[in-house]
Amino acid sequence: MSVVAIRSALVHEQHALEELQRRASLANAGDRDAILAHPDAIEVPLGQIVSANVFVLESDGALAGFAALSTRPDGDAELAALFVDPHLQRRGFGRGLVDHCAQIALTRGSTALHVIGNPHAQKFYLSCGFVCLGTTETRFGPGLLMRKRLLP
User: Fold this and answer.
1) By the 8 A CB rule, do 91 and 122 touch?
2) Within 13 Å, how many C-alpha atoms sit on residue 126's CB side?
3) Cα–Cα nearest to 48, from 70, 74, 21, 19
4) Contact 79/86 with Cβ under 8 angstroms?
5) How far apart are CA 9 and CA 69, in angstroms?
């Protein structure tokens, strides 16, 4: 049985988080070409880490995934990043990170958690309790506007 923990990211982990983001993005056929064409898209802003808005999931002490939150102009929270190491996907780590971020957002006063999701991740987000509100154009093509209501 794995020991899983979620904690705030540390400044010195920025590069490791970006490498995890790169691996996860390149492992997804739907993202690979866009990431290869725009390698600058791989970024975990230091300010997000310093402001305690990046959360690391460890499995048996090793970095397995991370998520990031940001605050929207309407006061709700945005799931700004969600990545799980490709060889550790489909083990509930992504859902664990979503649940953790939802709880953090709730304690910060948000009534909903929003995400602009990749169309290939729609089933995952729906299974986490998000509903699709529509679509938006992103740097890499269409994205799904999704929201998860937060209940105290």
Assistant:
1) no
2) 9
3) 70
4) no
5) 12
Q: Considering Cα of 98, then 104, then 105, then 111, what sign does the dihedral take?
A: positive
Q: Positive or negative CA dihedral for 137, 140, 142, 145?
A: negative
Can you tell me which residue has the tokens 């998000």?
Answer: 130
Domains and CATH numbers, the chain: 4-149 (3.40.630.30)
Beta-bridge partner residues of 114: 78, 147
Distance CA 126, CA 144 (A): 11
Q: What CA–CA distance (Å, rounded) separates 57 from 6?
A: 4
Q: What is the pLDDT along the chain (152 residues), one digit of tens a residue?
A: 678 999 999 999 999 999 999 999 999 887 888 888 889 989 999 999 999 999 999 999 999 999 999 999 999 999 999 999 999 999 999 999 999 999 999 999 999 999 999 999 999 999 999 999 999 999 888 999 999 999 87
CB atoms within 10 A of CB 1: 4
CA distances from 116 to 87, 134, 136 (A): 24, 10, 8
